[in-house]
Amino acid sequence: MAENVKHGKSIYLKSIKMSKEVTLTVYEFAELDQQVKNKVLEEYRYTCVQLNDDWHQDVIEEFNDDMINFGISANVKFTGFGSQGDGASFTTDTCDTDLLIRKLYETGHDISETALLDSKNLSVHIERSGWNVHEYSMDVIVHDEDLMNDDERRKLEAVITEWARTTAHDLYKNLEKYFDELTSDEAVIEYFAENEFLFFSNGKVLSRGI
Fold it and tell me: How confident is the model at residue 210 (pLDDT cuts 50, 70, 90)?
């Protein structure tokens, strides 16, 4: 790419001690050569998430609001993305078991009549085991004060476990989708524009906001 005023911006720097003026030609991102653009995009790929440790907070808050509708105050953990063992899971800080069981029944899950009738006398705890935090690290424990037989209790635990793991899997996919958006070419280019980045022809940054 030719460095001239037509395709770039001239910056004049003056050194007082040496009484010299230096003219530098700089470019906005859109003016760079395509190969240089690709290099710059990869260099700044994760900037939007690195600058904001809480980038995931809106997704998790929306998830927590949904869980409240099921009677659950959730504690979410996740790791990501792209490595074996990555995923999301949640445990219950508190659980309104009656509301949870009735909501599961209303949304088409296989809740038995016994569980519905005894829901106010049951307690459900969702726990996490092992080192990983993906959905399969979640276990469900139902305490029933001997109101249900073992088969009924295990069936209820299985139904809630399947729901919880599916819900955690969906949460992970939403987090991954948002992460991909924040690390997309479009997000990085928008970051350059908002911060008024200027580049040399090789992709090195002169400064922001000149």
Answer: very low
Q: Is residue 125 domain-resident?
A: yes
Q: Could you tell me if 109 and 18 lie in one domain? A: no
Retrieve residue 157's tokens: 């635990």
Is there a domain that residue 48 lies in?
no
Question: 178 with 200, same domain?
Answer: no
Kindly state whether residue 188 falls inside one of the protein's structural domains: no
CA distance 138 to 176: 20
Task: Please give the model's pTM, rounded to 2 decimal places.
Answer: 0.84
Beta-carbon count within 10 A of 169 CB = 16
pLDDT attached to residue 23? 85
User: In terms of domains, do 116 and 178 share one?
Assistant: yes
